[in-house]
Design brief:
This protein is of the alpha+beta class. It folds into two domains: 38 residues, no CATH class; 104 residues. The chain is 40% helix and 19% strand. A hairpin with a 4-residue loop joins strand 1 and strand 2. Helix 3 packs antiparallel against helix 4. The protein is elongated, with a radius of gyration of 19 Å. The termini are far apart. This is Transcriptional repressor NrdR.
Length: 166
């Protein structure tokens, strides 16, 4: 593992232990060259996943990017980091278990929406507003009404009631 401070490739593991829900290993490392200390996480990767964007462009799946987008939706919300990590790990496992090398970004977005729906309703509305490209107040109202009624979310699928957007 390359040292993030000096670039040396000769780092040493000082401590290893399971992290979160035992889905990864947390390693404390030290660089003998500069003395810098840092932490790495080792996770199982069943297969390489390629994300197919709306534009048709393809990019490698990035777990950290997924985590950042969820953290933005959850900003200043009282949700434990462990529950967020479990949700992200669950999404990654679902993607890997699809058995497909390429996954459309829309499918990933739907998995995040499902996860946030049960994790935190405010984060769910925040994420949905960006993911589904809300343009009017009634878009928010439809999501909130659906949450309050306990529906499955089909009523506010993207562009469901606006033929011009379809």
């Amino acid at each position: 593992m390359r040292c993030p401070y000096c670039g040396s490739v000769d780092t040493q593991v000082k401590d290893s232990r399971p992290a979160e829900d035992s889905s990864c290993i947390r390693r404390r490392r030290v660089c003998p060259t500069c003395g810098g200390r840092f932490t790495t996480f080792e996770r199982v990767q069943l297969r390489e996943i390629i994300v197919v964007k709306k534009s048709g462009r393809r990019a490698p799946f990035n777990r950290d990017k997924l985590m950042r987008s969820v953290e933005i939706a959850l900003r200043k919300r009282p949700v434990e980091a462990e529950r967020v990590e479990q949700m992200i790990s669950g999404i990654v496992r679902q993607l890997e278990s699809l058995g497909e090398v390429e996954v459309e970004s829309q499918r990933i977005g739907e998995l995040v929406i499902e996860g946030l729906r049960s994790l935190d309703p405010v984060a769910y509305v925040r994420f949905a507003s960006v993911y589904r490209d809300f343009r009017e107040v009634r878009d928010f109202s439809a999501v909130i009404d659906e949450l309050e009624s306990g529906g499955d979310g089909a009523a506010f699928a993207p562009d469901a009631d606006d033929p011009e957007k379809a």
